[in-house]
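Deviations from the work plan: none for this task. Representative record:
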Amino acid sequence: DAKTTQPNSMESNEEEPVHLPCNHSTISGTDYIHWYRQLPSQGPEYVIHGLTSNVNNRMASLAIAEDRKSSTLILHRATLRDAAVYYCILRGDNYGQNFVFGPGTRLSVLP
Amino acid sequence: DTEVTQTPKHLVMGMTNKKSLKCEQHMGHRAMYWYKQKAKKPPELMFVYSYEKLSINESVPSRFSPECPNSSLLNLHLHALQPEDSALYLCASSQGTSGVRETQYFGPGTRLLVL
């Protein structure tokens, strides 16, 4: 399985943008990059996903490097409610239904 | 309704008890999943059901027994558990079964303590 690496933890100030990096140097051409987050005492929730182009939705933006070996989840204005563990996950035809979470990045948001 | 519900929220059981965890979704999803999550660790996949048939069992010990009585319901039967099985058990569902663009919807989990 292609692996992802993320920083263990990051800190941000409230109302500032946050850039959460993910490295996936062994990504294959058909792998999608998914991001989920897990708020305290909750199950994970979907944030965004993409293949090659940058993607935007109401929660976040996903910037994908041209060589696809890394990606960045962008929260445009962090709020206290964005404090969570953020997981970058690869999904491809070779994985079938396997959904493999890496250790993720624990984001703290300071008031 | 994009909700996956799980009951109970908390469960304490002895090593000789038999108990069941329940998961329900009414989104018409055809794939359902059980995950185990230890404290400060990411979720780990245990079982996957596709169209009510078990399609993946990630070498889970037989003291965990999944059941999918219908397309909306998923159970996890527990018997003779060990203290190291104490964890958060998460249920999830997705519309299809293998699409790379599939989004999984997670329930809030059942926090299990085995004494």
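DSSP finds no helices and nine strands in chain A.
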